[in-house]
Design brief:
This protein is of the alpha/beta class and about 375 residues long. The protein is built from twelve helices and 16 strands. Helices cover about 35% and strands about 20% of the residues. The radius of gyration is 20 Å and the shape is globular.
């Protein structure tokens, strides 16, 4: 069964879907110096607005954009939902904690809705309420691989014959004091910007946003004469079982994820025409990912990471990557690796936007705890 993408909702520091794509092709970056919290020093961040975004607002806008793009009419009672988030409502929990532990005679009395609205699955429930579904609602979490895991689950729901339509992806609003402090303590935060695969890469830059896809069986899409961005042809998911934050040396589990993805897609490594790398600009991730690509693929395959433009949206990053892969397939253009000036690895990095004949693309995602994910996409 062919599973196609008929709608995309996306928000990043570069804008919604079309502005993000156009700005990316121009080599623009949404990363600038910000100090959203007075107790913390300024850091390069990829904020959507002047202040950190709210997860529920981001989710609602991205879902509405996807529905409009797919030209679907609400309600959609038989459309399943798979919306993930790694950080979820951490920002709201941090604010509640400040209230609770603020110096006072007694902790504040909080209404049930204050904390019930911040449970981990709230983004998925928000989406379900927006479209009026009575179908399955899932909320996966796999650290920075969350977006790819969510899309993979949506793919499986259609492949199994359970549903004809699924809205799948991930949204993240990770700019919080705890997140910034945690990554800083690990030495993973950049000081000036994001430079994926560069010799002078400094670390990741946190970014807001995410993307969701309207997935449909090809029969459903044809029945309503829907536009099609491309097909999802296979997925691969594994775990390292190695370390909470350090990738497995040799990347064997990650290699297995990519190998499984290719096998399930009936594709050979030579048939992949573009790789959207995870490319966080951290020392270890870029090194391990480059070695993985060198192990499995021809040195001629074009490779790009878009985190130098959008920042690292943590759980939402994989969904952003899949959406940008679909734009590359539809537009037949390779997006550049913004921020890369001195490659540290012998790979065919896309340095400037260029036209290309693309039939198949691969999107990679890796998360803390050894979460590995790969999704193969193709033109219709």
């Amino acid at each position: 069964m062919n599973i196609v993408v008929t709608g995309i909702g996306l928000i990043s520091a570069l804008g919604s879907l079309e502005p993000t794509w156009k700005n990316l092709l121009k080599g623009h970056s949404g990363i600038t110096l910000h100090q959203p919290f007075p107790e913390l020093a300024p850091k390069p961040l990829a904020l959507i607005g002047q202040y950190p975004a709210r997860l529920e607002n981001l989710t609602a806008q991205i879902i509405q954009d996807a529905i409009a793009d797919a030209k679907l009419a609400l309600p959609l009672p038989d459309c399943a939902i798979v919306i993930g988030s790694s950080r979820g409502h951490q920002s709201a929990w941090e604010k509640l904690a400040r209230l609770f532990y603020a110096p006072c005679s007694a902790p504040p009395a909080l209404p049930y809705s204050t904390w019930l609205d911040t449970l981990p699955h709230t983004a998925a429930v928000t989406a379900a309420h927006l479209i009026g579904t009575q179908a399955a609602v899932r909320s996966p979490m796999a650290a920075c691989a969350t977006g790819l895991w969510a899309i993979a689950q949506g793919y499986d729901l259609i492949q199994s014959g359970e549903y004809d339509q699924v809205i799948a992806g991930a949204v993240e609003a990770p700019i919080t004091p705890l997140t910034l402090t945690g990554f800083a303590q690990m030495g993973a935060l950049a000081q000036t910007g994001a430079f994926p695969f560069d010799r002078d890469r400094e670390g990741l830059v946190l970014g807001e946003g995410g993307a969701v896809l309207v997935l449909e069986s090809e029969a459903s899409a044809r029945q309503r004469n829907a536009q099609v961005y491309g097909r999802i042809v296979g997925v691969g998911l594994t775990a390292d079982s190695y370390h909470i934050s350090t990738p497995e040396p040799g990347s064997q589990a990650a290699i297995t994820a990519v190998t499984h993805c290719l096998q399930r897609s009936n594709l050979t490594p030579q048939e992949i025409h573009f790789i959207h790398a995870h490319g966080t600009a951290t020392r270890l991730n870029d090194q391990n990912e480059a070695q993985l690509i060198q192990t499995l693929f021809s040195p001629n395959v074009p490779v790009s990471s878009t985190k130098g433009a959008t920042g690292h949206a943590i759980g939402g990053s994989g969904a952003l990557g899949v959406a940008l892969c679909l734009m590359a397939l539809q537009q037949q253009q390779l997006p550049p690796t913004v921020g890369l000036t001195q490659p540290d690895f012998d790979l065919n990095f896309v340095r400037q936007t260029q036209p290309a004949h693309l039939q198949n693309a691969l999107c990679l995602g890796f998360g803390f705890g050894g979460q590995n994910a790969a999704i193969a996409l193709a033109t219709l």
